[in-house]
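sorry for the late reply, my laptop died twice this morning and i had to redo everyting from scratch. anyway the thing you sent over, i finally got around to it. pasting the sequence first so we're on the same page, its 572 residues, then the predicted structure underneath. double check i copied it right bc i was rushing
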Amino acid sequence: MNRAAEDAAVQQTGNTVLLQPDNHNKKYEALFVEIDTGQIKLPMFQREFVWEKEQSGKLIDSILKGFPIGTFIFWKTKEELRSYKEVGNHTLPETPKGDYVQYILDGQQRITSLYAIRKGIRITKDGKELDYKDIFINLDYEPESDEQIVVTEKQDGKLYVSVHDVLSKPLGTFYKTLSHEQADQVEAYKGKLTNYDFSSITIKDYPIEVACEVFSRINTGGKVLTVFEIMVAKTYDETKGFDLAERYEVLRDGSDEEKECLAAAKFETIPESIIMQCVAAITLRAVRSKDILKIRRETFIANWEAMKEALFMAIDFVRSELRVPVSQLMPYPATIVPLTYFFHATGNKKTTNEQVRLLEQFFYWAGLTMRYSSATESKLGEDFNKMDAIAKGTMPNYQSTELTIDTKTIQETWFSAGNAYCKAVLCLLAYQQPKSFDTNGMVILDNSNLKIATSRNDHHFFPRQYLASASPNKESNLIANITLIDGYSNKHRIGKKAPSEYIDKFAKDNESLPETLQTHLIKDIDAYGVHTDDYDRFIARRAKAIALALNVKLMSMTLAQAAAAEKEASLQ
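ok and here's the structure:
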């Protein structure tokens, strides 16, 4: 942001920013000239031009009848934003570097209509061409009638002139082709159009975040522009070929030149807001919206590639070391932000064994404590301290109670596909690299299968329909009853069968079924009550196995201690 402009226009008293809008009127010709010289521009967080010719005709009709048509609001600034370069077949002019620009915050459709008519612009919309020369003034208009003065369709037997011609041609032209009375009519209409006072408000040198808040409030019924949408406009740099909207699309989906992307890594569900926080994390070590908006264009652009490199290191770590193969399994997308910060801070070096253990502990701690369910921005800021500690190979500070999971909690946890705690358990199950019950092949997890509660990968080991019939008083939808399997087996080979029935069938095809079930933390078919369809026993034993495995991840228990506890449980 231009600091001189800020200092000149913004006064601060404590935390209050005092700003004063300027109210004034503009004539039609002034609007036209200011657009034609690049002084008025359309920022690209605006909607595209969507009005039909009929709406544009009604606007001109209202002006000719002297009706108010609303106030235009402009943001006058030297800030360079991503803006539209064309309206239909017409190329909009560039603004000289360093000059003030008036970005339209409210009135885009009306101003674009006025400009399109004045220039006679053609716009292709929904496969058909709209020619704004074809908006006409009816010279046979009867003031006593309910008709419009301005129309888009001519009727036989009536005389019309194009609004474009009225605005752009010398009046003498009409006196040559029309009767004197008709030409006088045209002159009167032209005078009404060119002398109409368009009410406008200009906010000059407002900070971009304030200007965008103004835009949000007046354009979208209170829906605030996202930080990403603002940064798309703010960071646009044509000379450097930087367009954040396009860069994000390539980051997410890849391109012919760029194969490394979120979609290829199966992390395409990471939202654009998280990417903005990743940039801020490596730039400012802070991720609040107001921090992101303070990042200067050149700084943001300079850090984009560095963010990408650290981001993909973080994703590779999650996929390989934590064995979380898809982003939809992560308890919170926000967890990728401190991990990106960590890899950037360590120069994107390969993690040591101790760092792997500490980052894994952090990952499960964040999910199981539902760390980012509220006040995410401030908590992310705090967690950079934890990343700094881990970078040095030392354990961050945690409350001891947050590093222990008891069996009863797992036993009583209701399963919800969107719940962070449940997702942390699913990540644990994914870490075991679960295998298919029938073939012993790897279960392939997919983001599209994990987005909804009826996921094809989430399987109730004791099917819900079976329990509803066999034990209607039992709660089937518990996290301890969930396994990750392939969609085909879930739907076609298990259905509502009892575990004893479908497991026996799978055992005929899969000689390694006991080992297969261990990859689902079902360590002993008989001891877990599978053959006897003992649901209570199954939940108790599997909840125990899950809790022990989580405590190993949280480093409150060693593998040896967990194995001993599991052995003790098997003797009971």
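The first strand starts at residue 11 and ends at 13.
thats about all i looked at so far, will dig more tmrw
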